[in-house]
Amino acid sequence: MTKRRRSGPRRRAGGTGRGAGWERIYAVVRRIPRGRVASYGQVARLAGRPGAARQVGYALAALREDSGVPWQRVVNAQGGVSPRAEPGWEALQRRLLEAEGIRFDARGRTDLARFGWRARSSGRRARARAGTR
Hints:
mainly alpha
């Protein structure tokens, strides 16, 4: 597959769709370590956009192939590879994940308890939640 861009939502005239929100999404996805996966919803929460799992999907679909963002490490809430509009991307994502050591069951799902990423909060955020400075 030599496409430069995966299929994704059409952007509105006058805007690129890649505001600070998408950059935060990309920053979170870059943090997912090799051999681990995160759900769209988890990425949205960590990017400060709870409830915006679909937006994560749109942002990842708009990535260029040479972006360096490990988009393949984001799976759905059941641990599966989500269907794409364009054939072949699901198989590619699964192959990339399997190459990183991620295993899938007969239903095509990975065990999120085993392979899921447990993001650590920054020290400042963790202290704020604990009520300390």
